[in-house]
Protein 1
Amino acid sequence: MNKILVIDDESWLREMIRLALEQQGFEVIEAADSTSGSAKARELLPDLILCDVNMGRAGSGYSTLEKLRADAATAAMPFILMTGMADSAGMRHGMELGADDYLPKPFKVDELYAAVNARLRKVKTVRDDAERKLTTLRTHISMMMPHEMRTPLNGIISNAELLATAANTLGPAAIAEMGQEISKSGQRLERLIENFLFYARLEIVATDADSVIALRSAKITAPSNLVRPTAIAQAEIAGRLPDLTLELADGALAMAEEYFKKIVAELVQNAFKFSEAGSPVHVSLKAAGEEIEFSVHDHGRGFSTEHIQRIDAYVQFERKMKDEQGLGLGLAIAKKLAELHGGRLAITSRKDTGTTVVVKLPKPKNS
């Protein structure tokens, strides 16, 4: 049974709304002013709030809305403002504060039902979608994480056991080699966990419109200063600095530095991973109309059309044929970051001839 909080200083109106909603099976809570209404919202956590805009000395619906939106426990509650003065300026002000809908007074019972049911249906749709995504995420994690974490752990444990039990029979070269293997496995595990947590954070951000808006308000004035050192660092890790070519032209970019560096690092790392030493990896940055275009091209084995269509978190291409490291999260993270910032990621690839990954991101609105 859905709980609805009605905040209005007129007792006859609260009574009318309560009787009408109870006939539809709703549980109704009443409050006569802004203070008690806010307190009941925090205490009882209703599924929906109906609040009068102008309650005289009993408070303002706008101030009630503002207080509840500022509290984490009540920030996401659906909120409908009731008003006899539904002018455009007042409606705009209410929407800016976070109102979900307006119900102009006087209203008919059918109009009340329509507004309430529409808002509750939207909440249910959002919750069902979030639950579906969470279920999918759990399934992928349960299938992929145990194997992916076990692989580097096996390398760490087996080499550590050898060092612990047979160190006196091993030469310095063998001990050094085992130490290097432990270090490589540890770094692989660390990156796996970091990317897993990073992607999970992006999934959470994607469900909150305010967080997405905040993401898009960031700005980078000279992205080439991030691309150059990040790409060079990945080339050095791969031992392929001579294979890297850079073609960088600056333009302001609507993204935080942390996220753009992540896109660059993941895409350049993949280019080196899926191509042979001695083959070029070309990294480009340029303005393209109202967008900034970042691209990475390699001459590696490429992806099939089917693989490109299946880019997603925890999808590993040709796992049985090629023992590549990682969960396949790199491309998924870059794609998710681009989309969260109002951009897009596209891949063109041919098997055994190479791949080009292009990320197009919007320029800041005020640039």
Note: The chain has three domains: 3-107, 130-207, 213-362.
Protein 2
Amino acid sequence: MKVMKIVILDGYTENPGDLSWAGMEALGKLVVYDRTSLTDEKEIIGRIGDAQVVITNKTPISRTTLDACPQVKYIGVLATGYNVVDVDAAKEKEIPVTNIPTYGTAAVAQMTIALLLEVCHHVGHHSQAVFSGRWESNPDWCFWDYPLIELDGKTMGLIGFGRIGQATAKIAKALGMNILAYDEYPNDSGKALAEYVSLDELLSRSDVISLHCPLFPSTQGIINEENIAKMKESAILLNTSRGPLVQEQDLADALNSGRIAAAAVDVVSAEPIKGDNPLLKAKNCIITPHIAWAPKESRARLMDIAVENLRAFKEGKPVNVVNL
């Protein structure tokens, strides 16, 4: 195969400068854009140009774009989710689309527990209170502004119990938590960690509910007014999976009314978050900017897999293909 032209449309979040694109550079003539418009299709088409290889994270690749860029032979997604690509159009054109299926398991599980511990202890808030002088001027030897929660003996329910869900469960068990799981496909490794139950039972029994399921039509809006009503009033909701799993107005209403105790989310329905997102004004809600995937170690792993995906395609043995 002749030297391929490789265009990375939005490389900044994967590599803001602390990693190297050398692996990609070894496979062809590389052009890297930090960001490309998510809505200006003319810009997307112009940047792809005559490239044979397109690498994207969140920049959409539509049928119109593929029609306008007939030289494209391969699309690599720098993420696990690949809904930004019209995979059906790519399949019709015999263009393999690859993703990165397993790079962030440990990182996302760690972030899930970090969010939970923040809800339980509000470490950042109390640290800031100390630095602002409140401890120094306090009449007592200690103080706290939120109820502090001990997790030992409490129950975590995981909706979706694949790799990330099970990795999260292992950490939660180390904290002394009991584990429930809801998943359409129970497996032996899951049974060794958790009690599989129905969704309704998980919602009613769990002190902490953590979302780890893919976004499908059947799971979109799975956290809604009806299902929130089945939860304990003391329940904590965590979401490090996909924003649209949650009906955000229903969750905000539940938090503001005290129907559930707290929520911590790393993902929202539209990203970057919009100023009118109801969770921004909800009580007892922690929001982080979709960073669960982003430790350097995790991004380095993603980079390595992306390079190997392209190398395998170049050698005629494509792997991690999602559409062929």
Note: The CA atoms of residues 265 and 287 lie 5 Å apart.
Protein 3
Amino acid sequence: MKVAFICSSFGGGGAEKVAVKLSNAFASTGYDVSYIYWHVKQGREYKFDANVKLNRLAAGNSLLRIWSLKQFIKKERPDVILSFTDIPNIITYVAYALAWPYKCLRVPNVRIDVSEKYRNLRKTPLIRLLSYLHGLSCRTAPLILVNSKDSGASLCNYYHFSEDKVHCIYNPVFEELPHTFPCVKSTGSVEENRIKAINIGRLTKAKDQHMLIRAIDHAVNDLEIDIELDIYGEGDLYDELQKEIVRRDLTDRIHLKSFDPDIEKKIKYYHLFLFASRWEGLPNALIEALGSGVDVISTNCPSGPREILDDGRFGSLVDIGSYQQMAEAIAHLYPEGRYVLSNHASVRVMSDELKNHLEKFTIPFVTSQYAQLVSRKINEQ
């Protein structure tokens, strides 16, 4: 089977990471896989399996990209096209229409709560057009894939179509699940007993790192919690966030760090993962944190965190924007105001209960779900 993955790039974001992991998994099991993209994110790319064929659309605007993609479809004749996020979904929809009479299975992947995304964008004519075209690209597809049940329901409500064609498959995150995690050593000194927290995400309004800064300020100065936070990510709000950190005199407590494509390997060396998003799809970073054995506190935003944490069974959920609740949740996890190894030794061993929950986020499980669903739909056509 020939499978084409279409995403704007192959680096820097959660949707790109999912598309790359799926491409690798399909290629390693014998599928003929092509990955089509147009943006280059130098130094931020994820790694491909040697059998994945990369095809860059070098066109400088969306109309030329559509034409180039139409040419690719007519020449390569894929059996299935999997596109990721709204712009690639729209470009694929138009290019596929222009490739008529050739037919294959076109599957848009929606990785965000669309109602929250468009509600928080300024209603310019361009945004209205993109929203309409994205809805059209989904409505005319025989199958739509979402990565959380809540985002699927939101998609159907926002674009007013039946849930029958929408299927939820979670993100592929883990090759395999670990049984144990390295303990973060504590020597007993004041600095070594400091709680080490981490956040991962683009520096944007949606990720709301401003809330995290206020939460750390409240935790340190009002609740007397000894904590510091590393924020990994890049984005337009870098300067604004750095000024806020300086203004609150938190430069020794909060550190803005650059994007790291291998960050998932480092999470397990922290004590705590903090997540403050205002809206999501299914955040990879939160899943990676849960599988790394660290404590997790997240906003209960639409959509994803509630499903990932199983309604709070595997982590704490707080209200969107409530830095007080975030700080109080930290205090609840660390009542002594610092990290004490003896109180948290059990966190370093994955329970059978958590392992069973995380199985649905493993690459082999997710890949098999994609393959079975796609094969069934092709046979039905």
Note: The first strand starts at residue 2 and ends at 6.
Protein 4
Amino acid sequence: MSSVPVTPGRRRRGKLRGETITLSHGAGGKAMHDLIEDLFVSIFDNRELDLLEDQARFDLTSMTTRGDRLAMTTDSYVVDPLFFPGGDIGKLAVTGTVNDLAVSGAVPLWLTCGMIIEEGLAIEELRRVAASMKQAADEAGVRIVTGDTKVVHKGAADKLFINTAGVGVIPAGIEINARRARPGDRIIINGHIGDHGAAIVDARGELAIENSIETDCQPLNSLVETMLAVCPDSHCMRDATRGGLATVLNEFATDSRVALRIDEKALPLRDEVRGICEILGLDPLYLANEGKLVAIVPDECTEAVLAAMQTHPAGTDSRIIGEVTASPAETVLMSTLFGGERIVDLLVGEQLPRIC
């Protein structure tokens, strides 16, 4: 996770010692080298990272055979707590960046990893996070190829913050963006909303109730590939993370200058999530997700896309939840359970802080 000159083929002997992270693990000396070699390099385990240069290097020829454009994204993760039902900050950091690439139609290939570690963090917790990142990367078919490690004084951060950047390749002929929604298009989501936000609430111990809600954190690149195989001309796609479903729909409506109409009865929502929202006064439309995408596809492709999604493990609960109309432009409307209609606007403020 830093540049450590090595002779090719040298067998590394760095061994991480102690039980907690100290400032010396970020100081550039032997303790830092041991942290990098014994924990990050050994766990992430790939040829690009193993060289420990200041950058990862790739053959452009192999990239151009996959597509005609690069996609690049970056995100930072500050979730509290670090570990929650069904996931942790490491899994979140990998899948979140993979999904940001995937919803552009890109094939995700490589990730970077920047760690900001608070002095005093248990080494075993850091090792657990790194192992989770490796498992998530393997599931998504990507590699963590370069990165950086910083250690800050106790109190200067909250245990661990992670930044990941990702690079992928967009196949020729794929053009997905938020400005392509057209009247007559249909809106599809790949499953239940609000699971991640509800799981974080539960993990914080803010409710004295028992439930089985787990984060929906999962990579979506394989699902997107399945969707594009039956409808290469998918118009819009985005993962509904912070701000939830409502935010994504408003972004599409604004950028495409159309109206999006959804049906509350069609929204997939678990009873446990509904219950937490009722207790805390939250709106599930704005709860965070980490394994849900919203797609807008031409009407003639809708049934084929939906059927394909429902055959995929990440899309078994996919639903058509609405349609695109011409007016009122830049507006999201929802037909309610009571037979009325209401505007679904952008969230003012923040329902739940530090959920990703």
Note: The chain has two domains: 23-170, 186-343.
